Amino acid sequence: MTMPAIDWVSLESMDGPEIVPAAFSILQSAALAVNSLEPDDPELLQVVPRISRLIEKKPELEKLREAVSALARATGLWNYIDKEVADVTDLLLAESVTSDELGGITFHREQIEALNKLLSGENLILSAPTSFGKSLLIDALLASGKYHRVAIVLPTIALLDEFRRRLRRRFHDKFELIMHPEEQAIGDNVIFLGTQERLLNRSDIGVLDLTVVDEFYKLDPRRKDERNVTLNAAVSRLLRKSRQFFFLGPNIDDVTMTVEGRWKFQFLKTRFSTVAVDTYDLGGVSDKESRLFEELKEGKNWPSLVFVSSPDRANKLAAASAEKFKASQSAGEISAWMRANYGDKWPLIAAVENGFAVHHARIPRSLASQMVRLFNSKTLPVLFCTSTLIEGVNTAAKTVMIYDKKISRANFDFFTFSNIKGRAGRLGEHHVGQVYLFNPPPPPEETEVAPTLFDDEENASDDYIVHLDENELSATTNDRVSAIADMLGLSKEELRIASSVGLETAASIRHEVLASLRKSSLLVWSGNPDYNQIQEVVRVICKVKSARDFGAYSDRQLTFFISSLRSTAKIKDFMLTYNSDYSGDPEAFDNVFKFLRACEYGLPQAVSLVALFVSKKYDGVNYDFFVRELSRWFRHEALRSLDEEGIPIQISERFVRSSDSKKTLTQRLEQAARDGSDLLSAFERDWLSYALDLKQD
Question: Which residues pair with 191 in a beta bridge?
């Protein structure tokens, strides 16, 4: 048996008494199909959220609330059971799967199945749609009291901050939350929250009760993620310290392991979705840009997420949209703040002023976090984004418009398309999402994940095997590591530093370092270098890697940026000077933020490697101070840590003292927000209150 085709558009257009029997007939058909269809059949599952949305819109359907609750129980959508009208059987079920510890959240059937496996001690790899509520499972495990030391691996800083906020609200009195490299775990109940780079290098992990890996598909080297090696190395290290693991991700059909017995796990794949989606095919439209603007003008589509291929594309479309119409009348405060703190040449400011947000890797983190918040509240009802937002950050998008079919210059595959599409709709807010396709979707194909750490190490890359402990290496792979160490003139421990930029890149940097040392002694220094010494380090690096990788057009410009950042007292002054001097393409203004990101990660690793090779030739060479200062923008460490938590440095640097720790600066900021400090505008107080959880949205 299959579900009969349902004309939901016609049903929604009905008014008056005729809609009641029509809706009831659909509920009957769905109830009859429950026992004959797969439990995660999408056509069956969509009935409950669609009828629930209709009940909210059409008062005459109120009498169907109990029937919808009965169907919600039968289909496993227990979180849709209406406790006010449900019969005793349905109510008892809903109450039994409701967590008081998590604020009264009701789980659905598939969540309970996953939780039962995990709480029985099994390792679980879960593949489920975006709307499944995978993150809620992590919270349920933490609330269970079974786990005391937990590591959670997340792909981006933005997702780290989202998790941090949620976990701090729910578990601030149960767990010590460690997110920043300078923080050290001291208690028994600890959550280590980090990207793979941070968790790989921690020395205080100890023995773990649970390791959680979100977006686990990135473990497969075929995804061509440049951070894949580090992710596999970090997860391998954590699993060897952990009693149990839980991997989460969307739309995966199978997980392969070539080395049997290394780790045992259950693989749970489900299509179970808690929201329905309407899909509109606009692939045949001749003028796609005009049609995009038409759809974005419609308030019924808001909040609208527009997926595009690249940051430049997002910038241009946001600017073009702002010229066409105004999507918001209430974005004046954030645009004025941006103008005051970044200057007037950034085109994004005009776009934001008209209600259009942008999210990509060249947006300051704290500002990007604020834009997502204002998008969810419809202050900025349209958000142009690249794949940076697809990787786990939750939004309240009602509509997803997939405008491009590429990421950078390559067509995305069906897996990525499904992940983007899955961002439409949100449980409890938009029961029915909308997806607009401006290009034909890629052909369906199964997605298999083959993590490097599940494979024989002899098949792994050199960059991965140098991270393995000696007792994990076979005789063959140990010989490989020894040969690499001899070639680069490094110890096996130092090879791990070299692998942070890639061993091939490291070999090229070594060649350039030796060439430089034959010509001059500019690389031979310790402590705080002068301008010429910085320039020589940068020149060597840019012989191997493009200056554009670090947000500059040339090695000379990159040197100038570093020197300017070092010599400018405040980030606001650095940005305003950059703004006044800027004469390039307006859409490329935000490359300065790519430079700042590179100073945090990428550039310090390359500089450290230069120092390592120079120190092999000369005693007393030490770049550690400069590398540390560069990685925190030559500012107090607490400023950058708080920026990752949604507080702009332009605000926190007004309050920082040289003796501050992150804790004392945070306390001072909390006091300033509560007291209404004269150093803060009303908009900044609101921003601080949100970021510090003094005011919960």
Answer: 150, 177
What is the rounded CA–CA span in Å between residue 601 and residue 263? Answer: 32
CA distances from 116 to 121, 142, 143 (A): 9, 14, 14
Mean pLDDT over residues 543-568, rounded? 98
Which candidate, 296, 301, 385, 371, places its Cα nearest to that of 331?
A: 371
Report how far Cα 394 is from the mean position of its chain's Cα atoms: 9
Place of tokens 């921003």: 687
Residue 226: how many other CB atoms lie within 10 Å: 7
Q: What is the mean pLDDT of the chain?
A: 95
pTM for this predicted structure? 0.95
* Overall residue count recorded for the chain in this entry: 697
Asked if 630 and 603 touch (Cβ cutoff 8 Å), the reply is yes
Query: Does residue 461 carry a pLDDT above 70?
Result: yes
Residue 136 has pLDDT above 60, yes or no: yes
Distance between CA atoms of residues 351 and 386, nearest Å: 17
Judged against a pLDDT cut of 90, whether residue 389 lies above it is answered with no
Question: Which helix H or strand E contains 559, and what residues bound it?
Answer: helix 555-567
Residue 37, by phi and psi: left (phi above 0), alpha (psi -120 to 50) or beta?
A: beta
Contact 662, 637 (CB under 8 A): yes
Closest-CA residue to 263 (of 234, 230, 233, 240):
240
DSSP characters for 567-587? Answer: H-S-HHHHHHHHHHH--S-GG
Task: Return d(Cα 31, Cα 67) in angstroms, integer.
Answer: 10
H/E stretch holding 287: none
Average pLDDT over residues 288-297: 97
The answer to whether 403 and 317 have CB atoms below 8 angstroms apart is yes
Contact between residue 538 and residue 600 where contact means Cβ atoms under 8 Å apart: no
List, as one string, the DSSP characters of 419-477.
HHHTTS-BTTTBSEEEEEESSPPPPP---EE--GGGS-GGGS-HHHHTTS-GGG--HHH
Phi/psi at 381 (5° precision): -80, -5
Confidence grade of residue 695 (pLDDT, cut at 50, 70, 90): low
